[in-house]
């Protein structure tokens, strides 16, 4: 087993550069998820690791070995795609065995391996079926079996669950996580789905336009996004973003929402942090997670006016859509089995320690707890 190291990895198609010097170190046994919007270069990066795309510039190492010019079959990686492309005329056992057969592994060794892998994946009773007679989830498991049976140093996944319906996707997601806990193989997993990234990853790599915006554990990215892009990408519904100006309040820095010269504008206290005093007058974007809004005691002074638009009940929670100083704003609230009181919300509070502050011009986070900034990498 081995780790994977990308150093200043670049991909160009002709004159167009689509991956701009990506640096990343995946530790042995680690499960790293590359996530980002469609077209941001996730698949291209993964395919460079697999050897399916030529590397335009930079260095790729698997274990201690530089593999830029090593053929895909000699890199000791196995890839699972969105389109699992099973051989329709072969049964499950033959599909799983295929990679071993072309490598001329001995017959009884193949049989032993296929039996073992089928057991791990719950396919033992289906070994003689053809892919057409399997459910989507079972087919996905066969595709995984084909990868596992080779005992590769690294697993590469490219949106392996995107073809499954929502329920099956949730189920297979948990299976992949259990499988990784059991096999402990170094894995790089590509998805555009932030929930998949959050639930599966040891560390998440967020990409945008061929660059890494931030690398961190799921909770690091959720709690301390390095910039507005990450803040808007991780979390559902996404973090609310409100334009504001830093002003000096009686008890420390505050954010004045909207036009700072307007009378009676709402002020939100900011987290007590050194840098924020110095930045009085600075234009910022205030980040407030929908679930961090406090509805209790919202009639007190210092609360923020809220123009309610509509309430979406989800069951135990509800999403309350509206506006704050003219900008869209979503609140997530517990219903306790009744939403009638939620229709009357017109003010709320926020806890200063939960508010995020970003520079309006660069989008970079102005305040990050100790250590978070060094781990964060971004354009800002
Ligand atoms: P993602 O997997 O994040 O959706 P991709 O890595 O597939 O994105 O693509 C990144 C960018 O590279 C996109 O802008 C895409 O159009 C471009 N691209 C991908 N393959 C090619 C190709 N063969 N020729 C030219 N451009 C390509
Ligand atoms: Mg892709």
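Q: What amino acid sequence fits the structure above?
A:
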């Amino acid at each position: 087993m081995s780790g994977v190291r990308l150093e200043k990895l670049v991909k160009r198609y002709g004159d167009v550069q689509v991956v701009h010097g990506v640096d990343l170190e995946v530790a042995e046994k680690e499960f790293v998820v590359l996530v980002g919007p469609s077209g941001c270069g996730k698949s291209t990066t993964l395919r460079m690791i697999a050897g399916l795309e030529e590397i335009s510039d930079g260095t790729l190492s698997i274990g201690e070995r530089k593999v830029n010019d090593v053929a895909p079959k000699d890199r000791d990686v196995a890839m699972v795609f969105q389109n699992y492309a099973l051989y329709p005329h072969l049964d499950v056992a033959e599909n799983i065995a295929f990679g071993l057969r072309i490598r001329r592994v001995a017959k009884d060794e193949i049989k032993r391996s296929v039996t073992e892998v089928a057991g791990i994946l719950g396919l033992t009773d289906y070994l003689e079926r053809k892919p057409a007679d399997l459910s989507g989830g079972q087919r996905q498991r066969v595709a995984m079996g084909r990868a596992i049976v080779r005992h590769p140093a690294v697993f590469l996944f490219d949106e392996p669950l995107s073809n499954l319906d929502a329920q099956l996707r949730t189920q297979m997601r948990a299976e992949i996580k259990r499988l990784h806990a059991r096999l402990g193989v170094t894995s790089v997993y590509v998805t555009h789905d932030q929930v998949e990234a959050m639930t599966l990853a040891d560390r998440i790599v967020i990409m945008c336009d061929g660059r890494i915006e931030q690398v961190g554990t799921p909770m690091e990215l959720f709690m301390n996004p390095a910039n507005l892009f990450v803040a808007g990408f991780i979390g559902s519904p996404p973090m609310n973003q409100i334009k504001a100006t830093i002003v000096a309040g009686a008890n420390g820095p505050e954010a004045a929402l909207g036009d700072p010269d307007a009378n009676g504008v709402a002020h939100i206290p900011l987290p007590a942090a050194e840098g924020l005093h110095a930045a009085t007058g600075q234009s910022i974007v205030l980040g407030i997670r929908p679930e961090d809004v406090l509805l209790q005691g919202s009639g007190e002074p210092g609360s923020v006016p809220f123009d309610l638009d509509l309430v979406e009940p989800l069951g135990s929670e509800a999403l309350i859509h509206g506006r704050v100083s003219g900008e869209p704003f979503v609140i997530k609230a517990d219903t306790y089995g009744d939403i009638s009181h939620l229709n009357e919300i017109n003010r709320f509070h926020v806890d200063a320690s939960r508010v995020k502050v970003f520079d309006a011009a660069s989008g970079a986070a102005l305040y990050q707890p100790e250590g978070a900034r060094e781990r964060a990498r971004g354009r800002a």
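Q: And what stands out in the fold?
A: Confidence is low (pLDDT under 50) at residues 374-380.
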